[in-house]
Amino acid sequence: MKATRFYKMGSALLTMALATAGCSEEEKATSTTTTTTDSSGGSDSGSSDTAATGGDAAAADTATSADTSTTDTAAPDTAAAAKNLVEVAMGNPDFSTLVAAVKAAGLVDTLQTPGPFTVFAPTNAAFAKVPKADLDKLLADKAKLTAVLTYHALMGAVMAKDVKAGVIQTVAGAPAKLSSKDGKWYINNALITATDVQASNGVIHVIDTVLMPPGNVVEVAVGNPDFSTLVAAVTAANLVTTLSGAGPFTIFAPNNAAFAKIPKADLDKLLADKPALQALLTYHVVSGAVYASAVKAGKVKTVNGAEVEIAVDANGGVTVGGAKVIATDVLGSNGVIHVLDTVISPPAK
């Protein structure tokens, strides 16, 4: 599979192309500038890649091949595919649940427009993995259903050969990650089982699992038991509202093992000292969503106001303030989390 660039939609394009689509603070973080290049990168909330070189959320690239050259997205060959995306799906009995969901969300007309669109289409078996009560509830909630379905769609028709690993921006406005492992390709945790089902207004790639849009970075952390100490610290520092805001944020997040390196008496003292705790936690936050492939060596300004040193070794390993980055691109709706093995402390003032 070769590489092609996805261009991010502006709000005007979203309004025109997806007229029916919808989705689903006590303090604001100081705006800062990060050092990035103009390529891209990304992961599901459990996966890890080591950070190294170039890109951001505004120009996310899509995924499938070892070839990393980029070209403009091309429309499909309409002569070869006379039926639109909805008609193609309706003609395949294995997409009957997906078709029912698209109808329930009121997205039929949208997906019959010229587009073009790339749709990652869950099969009936994929929908069958969702507990029936949850699926029935989802189908009855039009706003949430629209958010879920548009999370499976991208602007532009991208064939399998034109994709590359990295973070992409979906029509829902939330990021997703394309990655490969052992010769197989995934979007988040869903295996891509078939590709290049062509339509007159786009292309369908078939997946084995229904994708769910990520929550914000706080919700993602709350949902991961390995961040329980971090969540307790964020709550004690009264930063939940801030980090649940629009952002976007890049969080260098120490896991529980990182906090366990701090003597218990010192950690208890820190958790009880709100100003000191806020200073420490905001030193782990950078303004803007900086994915792994956009990270490069140098100093970046944190929300704390102090700079932190990022180093990249010859093998692509990354340290932040001396702490090793052990997992990258844990996606949130308002930013991205990179996991650290050590808590970093801001310089003394």
Model description:
The chain has a 7-stranded mixed β-sheet. A 7-stranded mixed β-sheet has the order 9-8-14-13-12-11-10. The chain folds into 2 domains: 11-207, FAS1 domain (Roll); 217-340, FAS1 domain (Roll). The chain has helices at residues 11-17, 85-90, 96-104, 124-128, 132-140, 142-150, 217-222, 228-236, 240-243, 256-260, 264-271, 274-282; strands spanning 117-122, 153-155, 166-169, 175-181, 184-187, 190-199, 202-207, 249-254, 285-287, 298-301, 307-312, 318-320, 323-332, 335-340. 25% of the residues lie in helices and 22% in strands. Residues 1-80 have low confidence and may be disordered. It is elongated. The longest helix has 9 residues, at 96-104. It has 349 residues and is α+β, with helices and mostly antiparallel strands.
Put the structure in a nutshell:
With 349 residues, this protein is α+β, with helices and mostly antiparallel strands.
Query: How many helices?
Result: 12
Query: Total domains, how many?
Result: 2
Give the low-pLDDT segments. Answer: 1-80
| Largest beta-sheet characterization | 7 strands, mixed
CATH topology of the largest domain: FAS1 domain
Q: Give the C-level CATH assignment of the largest domain.
A: Mainly Beta
Envelope shape: elongated
Which class do the helix and strand fractions yield? alpha+beta
Order of helices and strands: HHHEHHHEEEEEEHHHEHHHEEEEEE
* Full CATH superfamily name of the largest domain: FAS1 domain
Report, as a whole number of angstroms, the end-to-end distance.
51 Å
